[in-house]
Amino acid sequence: MEITALFTTARTDIGAHDNASPLFTLSKATESTNVTDGKKCLNTMYIYESSALFQKYSLPYITAVGIPGNILSFLVWVRPHMLNSSGVYLAALAIDHLSYLVLYSIYNLEMRWGVRLLSFPGLCEIFTVLYYFFQYMDPLLVSAFSVERYISIYHPFKRIKYCTKKKATIFTLVLGVFSALLSAIQGYFWYYEENTCFIRSEVLIGGQGSVWQVWAIITELLSFFIVPMFVLLLNIRLLRYISNKQGQNYCGSEKQHTAKKSSAHTTLLLYVSYYFILTTLPVSVIYLLQLYFLSEQDCTVHLLYTSKIIIETIEKTHFALNFFIYFTTGAMFREETKLLLKINRVQPADVYIIP
Fold it and tell me: CA 274 → CA 20, 149, 265, 268, 278, distances in Å?
């Protein structure tokens, strides 16, 4: 999640005009104004420029892998044997990641490759709203299926009441409305002028206490720090509960088999949520650090930029690699993928239905 010379988001490359935005950007204008000249910074500047090139050429590969991967993930999760309550959230997550990667590819072409796609009246505002919307949906969907799995394991008698496809669908729509409300204000923050997308000067008045900066910090902390921390604490408690239950004997092979299926699906979801946490939290930390170093005028800024670029590039992978997590950790997902691709024509038995 970034912000730069064409745009600027609280966490993404979309960034404000370099003279208007209080945030760090990756633009050449920002490089020249935020860092003092001098031979002492040549080494750190070289490292920074190398990391920027790494990001520029690695992002197309990430999107090239992620777009078909998310399409496949969606097609598998909506298959009858997979579409339970968790499947609803994971199918929605695949659509969310697919949409984000498509938008990010468009942004990347404009910002890093000079292909003019967004600098038109109306597209500036629409693009920023959609771009933020899919970012906000990501942590909310991860938290949704984490809570759903927590209820299924920790309160199994409430699972039938709360963990249904209908309730998951309704809750996903509610999360969509909430994300839309959070992102709608970006349509006001941003406007098109002189072939560029700018943040309105009136929302930047006050510097660190401006409307833009306060809103950016609040939404950043809420969506990309507090929610991931909540998911992390939930997963830690869930893992402790599962470890305490290991070795417990079940009465009857059917109950034992059901427990194994549920445990396998829980493992898949834990891998997805932990990868989300590991790639998302560092971006929030570096974002908060950049506020502290905002006024620095030495080589420290280069190093912060470099760290920011590398961390954000790694963070992008969680939008692209979920299919591989599903495929390597979920036996049911593998079987359904083979069926979808006509690799394995044996119909899955009812054992694949996840409780």
Answer: 36, 14, 14, 10, 6
Place of tokens 């997550």: 93
Q: Domain limits at 310?
A: 3-352
In 3D, which of 102, 96, 83, 94 has the Cα closest to residue 137?
Answer: 96
CB 47 within 8 A of CB 37: no
pTM value? Answer: 0.83
Cα four-point dihedral sign 86, 90, 91, 95:
positive
Instruction: Please give the tally of structural domains in the chain.
Output: 1
Is the Cβ–Cβ distance between 348 and 354 less than 8 Å? Answer: no
CB atoms inside a 10 Å sphere around CB 195: 10
pLDDT in tens, 247-301: 554 444 444 444 455 677 788 999 999 999 999 999 988 887 777 665 555 677 7
Nearest to 111 by CA among 200, 9, 26, 21: 26
In this structure, what are the phi and psi dihedrals at residue 198, rounded to the nearest 5 degrees?
-120, 160
CATH of the domain at 208: 1.20.1070.10
Q: Enter the tokens of residue 18.
A: 């370099």
CB 118 within 8 A of CB 190: no
Q: Which two tokens stand for residue 237?
A: 């408690």
